[in-house]
Write a structure and sequence with these properties.
Layout lengths: L2 H6 L3 E3 L3 E9 L2 H9 L11 H13 L4 H4 L2 E9 H7 L6 E4 L20 E3 L7 E4 L2 H27 L4 H4 L8 E9 H11 L6 H17 L1 H12 L6 H12 L16 H10 L5
Antiparallel strand pairs: 1-2, 2-3, 3-7, 4-7, 5-6
Helix pairs in contact: 3-10, 9-10
């Protein structure tokens, strides 16, 4: 039984009424390698696991993206519209969504947990600041719930009067849940995750991204390891910052030019690191 049918097909609950469910995948770590090695008339099966892992890591590090685009994933997601409107900004996917023109909208809406009801941040125009005291947060959550119940009540009243579905839905809020099927290639899935798993992303979409990350990790573990090492756990320095780093390295005592065992870098990676800092290994 494949990993998706064994673990993920039933879906994982997200937020209060949402879920994320793996529908299908195409390709795996070997497919990434096969796509790259075809240039040399070779395949993953003709090389060792260590060699194939090294190739995936090399391509991730140097942004050779096409082989990663050969793998695709399709998921079924139920999510608040306010999350969907952020998610859809990643325009490289294929999406088909539940339609409020064809069916009545879902009678479910998102209400944040009290600890997620916060003041507006003083330093970030698009982010949250400190949380409200619990009693106030509970009261505000009740206000959100009541407002959504009211909008749903008005929506159903309009339908009862014979109003068209496509018009009546205009009174509902972005807290309402929707569903969609979302298909995307691995390269762009990783791009989505690098942004939406970030601590600056809105909490609600970050929760979905973290669950998607677990699916991707189980699907392509070697590519995921490289992604963690070269993207999630990495940082791009400015020219000015690089000059500071070079100065620090120049003043470091005891440099021998050999791989530092603590670094967990290969010889090749160590040399590239030193070259970036203007040192010779």
């Amino acid at each position: 039984m494949s990993f998706q049918h064994e673990i993920y097909s039933p879906g994982v609950k997200v937020l209060d009424h949402g879920f994320i469910r793996l529908v299908d995948t195409m390709g795996n770590d070997d497919a990434i390698v096969d796509a790259a090695r075809v240039s040399f008339g070779s395949t993953a099966a003709m090389h060792s696991k260590a060699q194939n892992r090294g190739l995936i890591r090399y391509m991730m590090r140097h942004r050779h993206t096409t082989p990663f685009e050969m793998c695709e994933i399709k998921i079924h997601v139920k999510l608040p519209i306010l999350v969907a409107r952020q998610w859809i900004r990643h325009r490289t996917a294929n999406v088909n969504e539940y339609s409020g023109r064809y069916r009545e909208i879902l009678n479910e809406f998102y209400v944040p947990e009290p600890e997620q009801i916060c003041y507006q941040s003083d330093s970030n125009r698009q982010g949250r600041g400190d949380a409200f005291e619990n009693d106030m947060a509970v009261e505000l959550a009740d206000k959100i719930r009541a407002a959504n119940h009211e909008s749903l009540s008005e929506y159903h009243y309009l339908l009862d009067q014979g109003m068209a579905l496509e018009t009546a839905r205009g009174v509902t809020s972005v807290s309402q849940y929707t569903e969609w099927y979302w298909k995307c290639d691995l390269h762009n899935v990783l791009g989505f995750l690098s942004q939406r798993m970030d601590g600056h992303a809105q909490y609600e979409i970050r929760v979905y991204a973290n669950h998607l990350a677990e699916i991707v990790k189980a699907w392509v573990p070697v590519a995921w390891e490289a992604f963690e090492d070269y993207r999630l756990g990495a940082h791009t320095f400015s020219r000015q910052e690089m000059e500071i780093l070079r100065a620090l390295v120049e003043s470091a005592p005891g440099y021998t030019g050999t791989v530092d065992a603590r670094s967990q870098l290969t010889e090749r990676e160590w040399k590239a690191f030193l070259q970036a800092l203007g040192r010779r290994g």
